[in-house]
Amino acid sequence: MSRPKSKLQGPWIAKRKRTRAESLNPVQDHSCEYSHGRPSPQARMGGSQGDTRSSDDQKDEIPVENYVAQRYIENPYLIGGRKFDLRVYVLVMSYIPLRAWLYRDGFARFSNTRFTLNSIDDQYVHLTNVAVQKTSPDYHPKKGCKWMLQRFRQYLASKHGPEAVETLFSDMDNIFIRSLQSVQKVIISDKHCFELYGYDILIDQDLKPWLLEVNASPSLTASSQEDYELKTCLLEDTLHIVDMEARLTGREKRVGGFDLMWNDGPVSREEGAPDLSGMGNFVTNTHLGCVNDRKKQLRQLFHSLQGQKKTPN
After folding, report:
1. CB atoms within 10 A of CB 34
2. Stretch 270-274: mean pLDDT, rounded?
3. Burial class, 302, CB count within 10 angstroms (exposed 0-12 / middle 13-18 / buried 19+)
4. Residue 253 carries which DSSP code?
5. What is the pTM of this model?
6. Helix ranges, the chain (H)
7. pLDDT value for 238
8. Where does 9-65 show beta strands of DSSP type E?
9. Could you give the 3-state DSSP secondary structure of residue 40?
10. C-beta atoms surrounding 84 within 10 Å
């Protein structure tokens, strides 16, 4: 009898799960003691070949390793024959109730080498991280390996049409919200705290988005002038929403480059309370990869707020 074809075929990656403390303290990293998920001979001996302790004592001292198993996406969407992923920024001001903002700008990070599955160990083919790509022999520091999301969205629209692009970006919106909701009950909610997350999204050939990982306190190191401008504006707009000067009313749906996408429920682009009964004409208040006229919007916003303060009751 022939065996049914497995749905789990293809490469899988086992990545060691590290706590933030371990990331800051490399002395605690025991990953070198493991080979294919099993303790090395030295680790099985309790760290010393001359150790004469009982096997039960040695088992108790073997570090327990946690791994995250991820399926490798074999059919990534390619541009110029190169693999890429997207970095998107989400600002969470509260988990209970969930209140999340989506930044309009972001970037696509490209590998420096054309994609192939024939060299699965080649990091320059498969890893898009700038920290990896900038060590490539033919890396160009001024050009870098990034596209701004506006350019990426325009490219897709020219290739597949605006309707397909709207569907893709709507699916990405769903990833942002569902991932936050999945941890809503376990994250400590403090009204005095906020968190800026960096989402890494991979697009496959069918224009389906895949969540790679969510980075707390994402890197804000710039690799180009364009990247520098994006991240300085991102930080400035984050502080506008944190609003330590108490200038905002709390009813804003846009502040600079951020759009409020979830406020204990989906936020509509239309003014007023949204009609969620049928969700037929409902359009989420997200503009990822769209025009970011943040300077103009901030001028109008703060001018309006200043006028409201001057108006007598």
Report:
1. 16
2. 63
3. middle
4. S
5. 0.80
6. 20-24, 41-44, 55-61, 123-126, 130-133, 149-160, 162-182, 225-242, 294-310
7. 98
8. 12-16, 34-35, 38-39
9. coil
10. 22
User: What's the distance, Cα to Cα, between the start and end of the chain in Å?
Assistant: 83
The most confident of 142-146, 165-169, 283-287, by mean pLDDT: 165-169
Q: What are 308's two structure tokens?
A: 């409201």
How far apart (Å, rounded) are the C-alpha atoms in residues 58 and 45? 7
Q: What is the mean pLDDT of residues 92-119?
A: 93
CB atoms within 10 A of CB 88: 26
C-alpha–C-alpha distance, residues 293 and 222, integer Å: 21
What are the phi and psi torsion angles at 244 (to 5°)?
-70, -20
Task: Extract the tokens encoding 192.
Answer: 């005095």
Tell me the C-alpha distance between 30 and 244, whole Å: 42
- Please give the mean pLDDT across all residues of the chain: 81
Token pair for 94 = 């509260």
Residue 43: closest CA among 25, 29, 26: 29
* Burial (CB count <10 Å: 0-12, 13-18, 19+), residue 137: exposed
Give the 3-state secondary structure of residue 154. helix
The pLDDT value recorded for residue 18 is 61
